[in-house]
Here is the input.
Amino acid sequence: MHAISKIIARHAGRDSVEVGEIVNVTPDYVMLNDRGAARASDLLGKMGGEKVHSPDQVVVVFDHHYPPIRQQDSVSQKKTREWIKQQGIAKFHAGEGIGHVLFPEKGYAFPGALIFGTDSHTVTNSALGCVATGLGHSDIASYLALGYNWLKVPEVIRFDLHGSFRPGVYAKDIALRIAQLYGEDAAPYLGVEFAGPLVATMPMAERLVLCNMVIDFGAKTGYIQPDETTARFMAERAPGRQWTAETTDSARDYGRIVDLNVSQIEPLVAVPHDLSTIRGASELGDVRIDEAIFGTCTGGRIDDFRVAAAIMRGKKLAPHTRMMINPGSRETYLKAMHEGLIDIMVEAGATIGVPGCGPCSGCHQGMLAPAENAITNASRNFKGRFGSPEAFAYVASSATVAASAIAGHIVSPAEAELRQGL
Amino acid sequence: MHFQGKAWVFGRNVNTDLIFPKMWFRPTYEPGEMASHLMVGIDEDFPNKVARGDLIVGGQNFGCGSSREEAAAAMKEAGIAAVVAPSFGRLFTRNAINVGLPIITSPRIDEEIQQGDQVEIDLSAGRLRNLRSGYETRLPPMAPESLKLIADGGIANYTRRVLEQRRAAKG
Here is the structure.
């Protein structure tokens, strides 16, 4: 069995499961964001459920519409606050950041865990060697009522990453390269494992970026075999947490194994309006940037701030370019302040917003006007994702976004450094 | 389960942001509200054109992206009899099953069905037929658990029933 199958089997109370089998599972934690909590509590009532079955397993995070800018959200958040109190749900985070950034940070995600969330990017957590996947609102409402949910055991595809990064290239560029090579449906319904010598050297932040993007290849969950890096991360984040690293029995437990040498990958950009059209950042110099959107569950961690601030230090945004930054979490915000990174970015002319999803999925300040171009370190460039459906969004790494915000047009961070003599 | 209806054909990689744009998100929905925004990211007039019993035919990776259940729920509410594509986004698949919307995978179906074709599907027999062209294909069997959820009318009915059983067991 693959480790993913073993994790699912354990949460189904079984010794083993087969790929393709549908089983009922009890997750360790279930994340409800503000929208998810409002919808799922409403649907729970409509399903005849009065009490939440396992309130200690439920984590409510206000990240999409917090603080609310529309009265309908204020009203719904007030209702949710009353609902969680009445249901005895104690794990509640409002304004502390994005669920998928908070889960690893606060130790809700751990090796061997099974995690559900009312959001497609729940897969991010799987970088810790757990199974993490998004569910719909009725799904979650049913879980709240019954304490379990159905899950199909996925086949697993493994990407073996090796080689070394060229200057200005990050995990995000690898994810975009996979989208370029294999399409937005590279891994439909599949588990995606990242392995190989390069992954072994990757810090947790870069692993989280890889696993965050697997949903955008169609996957059910990511997976990275827990190692020293994982153990150190857990010791720092959740020292008291008991966890089990499952292991995969044999190479026969994979549907497919793909070898990917990253040495030839250059800084990449997904051009509008989907992730399957990928170009080199250096080829897109004629794309004017009106707004750089920085943050989200893909690129809102402290590592992203360090990379961006190093590029932006002592520089100003291009006169026609604005930059909207939303830290992925309150902790990231504080760290970035203490390290002087926020100073660098604000002095460059950036606007800092609340920790949360920001303009991604059009929830907060920084909406685009028709015909405007944005570059973002988020994961999606879908039409209308950041405001006007007539706007254009380009997806790239944190480095490419920061370098392009300074240049005022898309630029490779490798070239930007050369030109500035760094 | 057997349906016949008019096909509305869409392309590859149609994401759920297009099927149900986030500007129409609400904490709760009035009856008919979700259906009134179905597919408006692609065709603003679609909710007025589509009729109960029609079918949606998508290209590869139909319903990819965001987990928004509204994409599938709006189709169910609009009376879409079934959605057919060569492949689907995972969350869309799951949401369709959970709201009781028949979701059918059929290779190259987007090449075999044109806008407005009358299509006949017999889910129990596992057969799909294009009444205009005569194209006929066998459908891969759905997991019995999924078929049962759809036949039940979705996960809400299933949950309601299990809760009732639990209450009855408690006496």
